[in-house]
Amino acid sequence: MPSAAVKTVTIRLPEDLHHRVKVKLVKEQRSFQDLLEEQLRAYVGEAPADPNFQRQIEIARRGMSKYREALSELAK
Question: CA 68, CA 40: separation in Å to the nearest integer?
């Protein structure tokens, strides 16, 4: 699968906030980019790329397929 294009964005933050965020990210061994991307994806309603989440979705799909008729009746 080809990778998506990447856009560079500049943000302005108060110096003290930037410092506190950097300190916390170092402790968590995360990058500023990872934090922002995670938060922006959540903001637009995009599910995180969590393998466990994907597994749960697949289980739910199988269950909905298997019990489609019963779920249809319950929805009435």
Answer: 34
